[in-house]
Design a protein that fits this description.
Rossmann fold; five-stranded parallel β-sheet; about 10% strand; 5 strands; alpha/beta
């Protein structure tokens, strides 16, 4: 199984949010998390925002990004999308389509309203945890 996890969920996981961290870990156990260059750079840019500086020091950010790169699989975007109310969210839909994802996991209402998108479920963190709890771990 292949999963796309949006930036807000990843940031929350990095900050220690229990449900987001659980979703990240479950995605790793059940399948593979995919990323594009654009979604990775969005994550890196977001980690540098001033409001996050009091929660993560520079070494924490470097460690998180390094681990994220090692634990995720790169995908080349082959399909462009211009459908989301927030144009910045199209990158996650493009990744899901180009990478043939089984799920897009998000907290973003602009994405959640599109569920399902071209047969790809767009799910909240809690829905993902609930639905995946019965799936076997990957081998």
């Amino acid at each position: 199984m292949l999963f796309v996890i949006d930036t807000s969920v990843l940031i929350s996981a990095a900050l220690g949010d229990g449900i987001c961290r659980a979703a990240f870990e479950m995605a790793l156990r059940k399948g593979d998390i995919i990323r594009s260059d654009e979604t990775f750079f969005e994550l890196a840019r977001t980690l540098e925002k001033p409001r996050l500086q009091k929660y993560l020091d520079q070494q924490d950010k470097v460690d998180f990004l390094s681990n994220y790169l090692m634990l995720t699989n790169p995908v080349t975007i082959t399909t462009k999308v211009y459908i989301c109310r927030d144009p910045y969210d199209n990158m996650f839909l493009e990744l899901a389509l180009s990478g043939k994802a089984n799920y897009l996991i998000t907290r973003d209402g602009d994405l959640l309203t599109l569920d399902p998108f071209q047969s790809i479920p767009i799910v909240s963190v809690s829905r993902f945890l609930n639905e995946m709890s019965n799936y076997p771990d990957k081998e």
